[in-house]
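Notes to self after the Tuesday call (sharing in case useful).
The group wants a holo model before anyone commits to mutagenesis around the pocket. I volunteered. Ligand is 3-thiaglutaryl-CoA. Logging inputs and output together so the record is complete.
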Amino acid sequence: MKPDLFEAPDYYNLDDLLSEEHKLVRDAARQWVKRDISPIIEEYAQKAEFPKQIIEGLAEIGAFGPYIPEQYGGAGLDQISYGLIMQEIERGDSGVRSTASVQSSLVMYPIFAYGTEEQRKKYLPKLATGEWMGCFGLTEPNHGSNPSGMETKYKDMGDHYLLNGAKLWISNSPFADVAVVWAKNEEGRIHGLIVERGMEGFSTPETHNKWSLRASATGELIFDNVKVPKENLLPNKTGLGAPLGCLDSARYGIAWGAIGAAMDCYDTALRYAKERIQFGKPIAATQLQQKKLAEMITEITKAQLLAFRLGQLKNEGRATTAQISMAKRNNVDMAINIAREARQVLGGMGITGEYSIMRHMMNLESVITYEGTHDIHLLITGADITGHPAFK
Ligand code: TGC
Ligand code: FAD
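Result:
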């Protein structure tokens, strides 16, 4: 892969709106991606392997629990810093951002928000350092966009719960030490349970043959009469709203992350267009390539403003699920379109692993599907503005 010459576009001087802390956090993540991700990520994506050696670095830049209070090992940062970290990591690779999103928003957040003090103390510090890695089990073979129909269930056996069922498409599952699993009790009410690797009857087979997110490990969670200790139930929130609350936080991070992937594609295409000579002049001097590049920077700038304002609302505790859906949907769509256009700017070179664009494009095919598909987020906006949910 070519050396990482990335220069972040900031067309509307958004840096002026950031605090010194935001910039410090962002720049530390940016440097780490240049040093520890860019040189290795293509090789790991090609061989479809998660680079486990990056876990320590992710913890050091505050990517595990950026907004979790420091008393539990988190970085205690605000929501804009969290977004900026996700942006920088996804500039390197969406699969690496996935690992951080899952650990922070889908594992640490539910333990912090819905768990007991004992659970927080037991799990959060180890998850913050990456000593333990986590995964989040909501999706099932028969229930993806419609998780309320989940079939995974548990029974109260007096001194423990007995868990049965299966989850599919679970990021980090093949190596996770703990899984936050959503299952129904005997009354059909959804609860979160912390399942630990090594519990009898619990297995995590890996899903192979992915063309997307190849540097992220994806797998199943199988529960065959797993005895879960009663103290592993998350007691403080039940119902579908509990996992959906975690998704609000992860989707917010993706709205920022997608900007990173788009910035990388734009920056690569701009540099290439200035250097590539055809018909005796740089292709950047042709109107058609300028149209592509000008539209890319316009869309990136709009997405940055959307994410920044959403971050302010989130800091104030005012961001709604529907506002988050709009930003996730818009920014991922923006990024995938930019990846497709940027790939064309590079001509044949665009399909090779010498450049990051094709890997971003393939990754974004997962990002546009997970954490709620492009269609589902449109329906969330539709339901919000009309008052008529059209899912069913
Ligand atoms: P609905 O009737 O709308 O809601 C059920 C209950 O939940 C409440 N609620 C929320 N509570 C807190 N936060 C939110 N964001 C909430 N949204 C809804 C709601 O008030 C209600 O409460 P109650 O007390 O009345 O029961 O539910 P629905 O069944 O009609 O579904 C709505 C829909 C389709 C929007 C929802 O199911 C949905 O978002 N589906 C998409 C599923 C999804 O996003 N799955 C993601 C799986 S995890 C993943 O992909 C990780 S990838 C990680 C990575 O690698 O980065
Ligand atoms: P389906 O729900 O079957 O949807 C298929 C198509 O139908 C989509 O185009 C969808 O938009 C459309 N559709 C569905 N319902 C409607 C409707 N009402 N109206 C119109 N169109 C509709 N899940 C986890 O729980 N944890 C994870 O860590 C995780 N990681 C993932 C990692 C990867 C790489 C991938 C690909 C997925 C991951 N997921 C995870 C699962 C992801 O959240 C689901 O794939 C997603 O929610 C969609 O579910 P589905 O694939 O079953 O598609």
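Two things stood out.
Residues 98, 101-102, 136, 138-139, 145-148, 171, 239-241, 244-245, 247-248, 250, 321, 370-372, 376, 380, 389, 391 surround 3-thiaglutaryl-CoA (ligand 1) (CB under 6 Å).
The beta strands are 134-137, 153-156, 160-171, 178-184, 190-196, 202-203, 218-229, 233-234, 277-278, 281-282.
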